[in-house]
Amino acid sequence: MKTTLLLQYVQIKNLMKIPQNAGKQAIAQQCTRLYWHTQEINHTAQKLYDWVAEKPGVIEYRMSLE
Known about the structure:
Radius of gyration: 15 Å
Distance between the termini: 40 Å
Number of helices: 2
Helix content: 25-40%
Strand content: 15-25%
Shape: globular
């Protein structure tokens, strides 16, 4: 038997425009995680993010298919 665990995550597209209760809304929808991206050179934002969240150590690569 093969089982699949389905978890819901919320990706924040614009951290500056999320409502203050975004975390509560995500929990109400049974989401288990909030996540977002930032530019590698945005050190000011990263200081805040390091304080409120964990950095997973993942590097994202993209390849254009056009």
